[in-house]
Each structure stands twice: as C-alpha cells, then as structure tokens.
Amino acid sequence: MTSGPGETGDGSVPATPAPGGSPEARQLRYAVTPWSVQRLYRPFIWTSLLVALIYGFGTGAGMMFAPAIGIDRGLWWIVHGQAHGVAQIFGWAGLFLMGVSFHVVPRFRNGPMDFPWPQRAVLVLIVLGVTLRFFGQSLHRRPFSPDLLDASGVVLLAGMLIYAGVIGRALYRGQNSRLQSEVWVLSAIIWGVIAAALHARIVFRMADTDAIAAPGPWNIAMIDAGLVGFLIIFMLGVTTRAVVGFLALKPTRRWLTWIALVLLNLGTAWHVVARYSEESDETAAVGLLMQAAGFVVFIVALRVFEPPARKNTYIEGTYVRYEWIIRAAFGWLLVAAGLIVLDAIGMLNDDAILSAPLSAPITHVFTLGFVTMIIFGVGLRMLTLFEGTEAPMHWLMDVAFVALNAGVALRLVFGFGSLPGADQFQGLSGALGLLALVAFGIVLRRSFSAKQRASYARRAAAAGMERFAQVRVGRAGRGPAGNAAFGTVSSAPAETAPGNRSGDDDTPESPGNGPSDESTDEGGQT
After folding, report:
1. pLDDT tens-place string over residues 44-92
2. CA–CA dist 342, 352 (Å, integer)
3. From the centroid of its chain, how far is CA 399?
4. DSSP secondary structure of 341-364
5. Helices 94-109 and 380-387: crossing angle, nearest 10°?
6. Using an 8 Å Cβ cutoff, are 282 and 348 in contact?
7. What are the φ/ψ torsions at residue 13 (nearest 5 degrees)?
C-alpha cells in the first residue's frame, strides 16, 4: 500500500504538533488525508457501465430478442442466462456499489481507509472473474472451458474478500459513533463474500463434472445471496442515510428498520441454505415470506411514500426528477415483495399461483425495477454532488426513466408466457432496458465534464450569495436576536452552495468533509 504525505502506512494520520507552531507544522496538522482527495469510485463506475453494456444489458437484450424472431429457447438460453446473471450482480450493480462504498463508508465513520492497491486489485479481480465465468460457460465445448471456470471462481472470491476486508477495516477504525446503517453495510459485505463463495463452489463443480450449466438450486442460492443479501441490503442501509435527506422524508422509524434488517438476513439465510441443501419448496418458501415481510416493513419504516417533512429547494439546473426515480424503485420493490409472497404460497400449497416463467420476471423486477432504478436515482444524485457538477440533458434522463419502467412492466406482464405475443414484448423489454442504460451512461459521462462543473460552480455561487443576502436581511430585522435569526432563515433549502448542504454527502472542495454524525442524525436530517 502506498502512503501519502501526512499519512502512515496503515492509512492513519500520525500525531502532529499542536496548531500555532511553524507554518510547516500547521500545514501538516490540517492537511487532508491522501485517500480522501481521491475519487476512487470513478474507475468502478465507468467499468460497471462497460460490463453492463457487454455482458449484462447487451447480452440480456440479445437473449430476449432471439425468441422474438423465432429462435427456440434451448440449452444456450440457460447457459447464457446464468453467465448474464453473474455479470449483472457482480459486474454491473456490484462494481457500481463498490465504487460508491469506497467513497462514502469511510466518511460515515470519519476514519481512514487502505488505498490505493486494494481498490485496484478489487476492480481487476472482479472484472476478470466475471469475464472468465462468462466465456468459460459460454464456450463450454472448448477444452479450456473448465480451466476458465476454475479461475473465475478463485479470482472473483479473492476480489470480494479484499473488498470486504477494506470496508470492514474502514467500519472498525472510524471515530464517529456507531449507527444502524453500518450494521446493514456489514451484513451486506458478509453476504457478498458468501455469494462469491457459492459461485466458486458452483464453477468448481461444473469444471469437475464437465457440466454445461450450474445446478439449479445452487444457482438460485447464489443469486439470492448476491442479489438480496449483498446488493439490496447494502442499498437499503445507505438509503437510511442518503434518501431521507435527498427526499426530505419524515424521521425514519428506527425500531422498524431493525426488524426489517433481522427479517431480511434471516429470510435470506433460510432461503439460501434451503436451496443449497436442495430442501423442499415448502421449506424454501418460509425464507421468501420472511424476505417479503422485511421489504414491506422497511418501506413503512422509511416513510418514502408519505408526504415529505419539508419542500426541497434546489440550485437552478439540478435534475430534480431523481426523486421520482427513487420512489419508483421502492414501488417496484413492493411489487417484487408481493410476487415472492404469491410464489411462496404456491410452493406451500404445492399449486403454483404464477405460471411457469419464461425469463425470470420476479428476479428482473428486483434487478431492474429496484437495483438499477436506485442506481439511476441515488447514483446520479450522489455522483453529481461528489463531483461538484450538474447533470445535463434532463430530457435524456427522463427517457432512461420511462424506458426502464416500461421495460420492467413488459418483462413482468409477459414474462410468465401466458399472454399472446409474449416473445415479442419481452424482446421489446430487453431493448428498452438497454436504451435506459445507454441514456443513463451518456448523462453521467457528460456530467463529469469541465463545462458542467463550471456551470454548477456559477449557479452554486449565485445561490450562496442569494442565501447570504436573505440571512443578512433576517438578522438586521431581528436586531439583537440576530443569532437566532441566522438559525431559522436557512432551515429549508436542501441544496445550496458547495460546503453548505444538508449533510448527505461530502463537498467537492473538502473531500474529507462528508456526512457528519455530529451535525446530522442517521437519516441525514439537519
């Protein structure tokens, strides 16, 4: 690991003289830590979009389009579908989540983090593992296929272990008081390692037996551990801090979020063990019911569909419809909870309520409707604030929002194959999902340009001056009570000039100045 100026080999800041000494001593005392100056998420974000374009949404759209033009579903459908699923969980959503977590988790804890070699190693290993799995399974007739599968299991697990170690150390070493959101994050990274270990077990078995496809129950166990245990639990934990502030929600019902956390972890563990052990459907259904209850309890606790506590005020040029995207994501999560309840009831009664699925519609309601939708909404909002920039082409982001919702709806309605034209409409759903990803990627890429940063800086400065003028008028009108006026005039805006936000993110100018547990509660409320 490389250490920068003012930082020891383990990422911590050494003891320094008290301020007031020489200029050199003062500079050392107040210097930002080298890791906090980095934007470690950038390579993860761009790589995740590339993986999604090639192995994820691109492959998925091709799979959906093939039956629409008369190509029969055969063994190729299962083979590419399983490789596509691994790419979506670990490559698309996984890499995006890892990149953001390297930025926000140390700020949650107000502590140091190991860098830069762990981040580089994680990125290379995860991408390599996903790629080896994709080609090792897709090229199953080649003599080197078992070697690719074995290697994919090793490197993907190694990448997840390094990631878990770095985030775990960041959680342990922080200075702030420990909060509930950190328990969500910790349980999620444990599930990420479990999912990678299950993946390794699956590919080792495939290589040893020269199998073309993964065992069905084991594959379900791996997907559930990666999707619900790793991705969704992590995202729900972060939303208890970010989304509450972004949407100006009413205070979260903390006792209910504890219940949701227990239900989700217990339900996921039950379902994963039942599927891996190849227990009966009746046994596995109990885990699904606990998961569904956990999702519903969490949404009730978050109060995301209740009227907000206050009206947000934004800097001109801000893409404000990210609020719609976030609420739509939780709407789809409710739909997914209802679907797994119906699925579980059918298992318990040994009489399926839902017809046989053609393309895993329930899984795609989770992955596209919730996970991808949250990435679009929360991801765009977070990253533009991290970068001190604004999103351009609001119309294109609207296109992404509409296309993704339409794609999920078509996948759900026609995914069970009980309606005429199911193949054609599923093909359209795949194309809409790919369109949404491309539109999101274009908006995000252009958001990082110097032009957009300069535009945001001008608007933020103007908003800051306007707010300062309002405060001065308020203080002058109250005379001796000016200090009290200063605390009341500026309570409403959710976004002002950089360095004066509501505590949901760090400022571009002060990378080490992220969400502070001393200035905000865990929900991000000021």
Report:
1. 999 999 999 999 999 989 888 888 887 888 788 888 899 999 999 999 9
2. 8
3. 21
4. HHHHHHHHHTS-SSPPPSS-HHHH
5. 50
6. yes
7. -95, 130
